[in-house]
Amino acid sequence: MKYQLMNQSTAIVFILLGFSEYPELQVPLFLLFLTIYVVSVLENVGMIVIIKINPKLHTPMYFFLKHLSFVDFCYSTIVMPILLENLVVEDRSIAIKACITQFSFGIICVTTEMVMLAVMAYDRFVAICYPLLYTGSMSPKLCALLVTMAYSWGLISSIVLTYSLLVLSFCESKVINNFVCEYSVFLSASCSDKHFSEIMLFIFANLSVFCTLIIILTSYLLIFITILKMHSARGRYKAFSTCASHLTAVTIFYGTILFLYCIPNSKNSWLVVKVGSVFYIVVIPMLNPLIYSLRNKDVKETFRKFMDFKMISQ
Questions:
Q1: What is the spatial distance between Cα 164 and Cα 180, in angstroms, rounded to a whole number?
Q2: How far apart, in whole angstroms, are the C-alpha atoms of residue 65 and residue 68?
């Protein structure tokens, strides 16, 4: 009997194997991922607070960074609780509707982050290539519009891709060799025609990845050309340092995505896929605040003052 999500309700579930094939690592992995999750939440929430309370950080770049931290916080919170639960319980089943809900919110976060990174690349392009026009060009109204565009595209992508899953039919419970509800999970478990779903995935995944990559690569190409034309070595260093953090974050984010998609789909690659997915889903939200704060004196100074205030108030 087929199960179609749009008009039926049944007990058919997915069983996320996660890292269950390594029982001796369950407790160490739980402690490791719990630590990473706690650190990630503290870092991203802390970054939002620091940017909010320090007037020096009320600039377009940190306005975008504040929203990037919010997206990373949301993504960690969507994925990590289920991952942690599956490391300590025997029953790793998850209802299909719950799995689709996780996927739907996850897509909003991932797609929004892609667009946000592209927006931040454009911001760096204007700041370095047209510094005299920067304040007027990157107005609060334009910044708000760009952030709204990022969230809107994330929401649109999520609605379309979620709908393309809701029309699929499922015949039985399925064991999934993964720890998160990704699109491939539903396609591999479906017993109906997947053509429409695969087309939607192809269109929206490529639009999101390649359009944002084109914006990022074009922005940095023009940035590097501008930097090379500078006569002062100090000026070149200062210009490069203003975009080094963002370039690092972009390289890690897109490098991990391209690495995962380039892995051959074979049984021998599942462990590599899981490790790559862990880095992409778990580690990157923790790294982003570190990448942007380590090189910024204002962020570190605000953090020290905030901690001093907390200690005095206690």
A1: 18
A2: 5
Position 76, amino acid = S
Q: Is the pLDDT of residue 177 over 50?
A: yes
Q: Are 288 and 249 in contact (CB under 8 A)?
A: yes
Which tens digit of pLDDT belongs to each residue from 106-127?
999 999 999 999 999 999 999 8
Six token digits for residue 53:
């309370």
92-96, 107-111, 218-222: range with lowest mean pLDDT: 92-96
- The residue type of 71 is V
What token pair was written down for 212? 């944002």
Question: The pTM is what?
Answer: 0.86
Q: What is the DSSP string of 43-58?
A: HHHHHHHHHHH-GGG-
For 181-205, the three-class secondary structure string (H helix, E strand, C coil) is CCHHHHHHHCCCCCHHHHHHHHHHH
151-to-103, 114, 128, 139 alpha-carbon distances in Å: 16, 10, 26, 19
